[in-house]
Design goal:
Layout: E1 2-7, H1 23-35, H2 38-42, E2 45-47, E3 53-55, H3 57-66, E4 70-75, H4 81-90, H5 100-106, H6 109-114, H7 145-162
Parallel strand pairs: 2-4
Antiparallel strand pairs: 1-4, 2-3
Helix pairs in contact: 1-3
Length: 169
């Protein structure tokens, strides 16, 4: 695997990228890269031998939005097709959770918000703030995959704006 600086026009978004990003989160990602561009060197976009993104599709889109002409990439040209598929999923799985007590005691809240971390809003009841208060299940049927994907983005944006610590499952 080789780390290098590549012309952004040589990098192609993965047409089978299973991740989506809402407008609000995308704007935070763009701002994050603008204010700390070195993060791209520390965590470059991962591409296959043909320049197709395996990890970092949203960061690529944000870099294009900013107008960058070059970006750091790692070429994972030694992965089998099966390993590429595995990487695409595992690169996006969030195994960990935030320790909000640690964050509250050792980090500045305004910095965390500036860095796009969504902080929980407690309702004053500290007994079970890690557990959801109520689960709602609904089934939505869409005429096609494109409409479904756009609806998921729109719904998640509404949820992000209105309800902290709520997500689509």
């Amino acid at each position: 695997m080789n780390w290098k600086i590549e012309q952004i026009e040589n990098i192609k978004p993965n047409p089978n990228n299973p991740r989506i990003i809402g407008k609000d989160k995308f704007e935070k990602l763009v701002e994050s890269i603008k204010t700390f561009p070195r993060m791209m060197e520390i965590r470059p976009i991962v591409v296959d031998a043909n320049g197709v993104v395996l990890g970092g599709n949203m960061r690529l889109k944000a870099c294009q939005e900013i107008g960058l002409s070059e970006i750091p990439v790692i070429c994972a040209d030694d992965l089998t097709p099966e390993q590429q598929q595995q990487f695409i999923i595992k690169d996006n799985v969030g195994f960990g959770q935030w320790n909000f007590d640690m964050l509250a005691n050792h980090w500045d809240e305004s910095d965390l918000i500036d860095w796009a971390l969504d902080l929980p809003v407690w309702d004053g009841d500290d007994d079970d703030h890690d557990e959801p208060k109520q689960n709602i299940t609904m089934t939505l049927v869409f005429p096609d995959e494109e409409t479904k994907q756009q609806a998921e983005i729109d719904i998640q944006e509404i949820i992000d704006r209105k309800f902290k610590n709520t997500y689509i499952k």
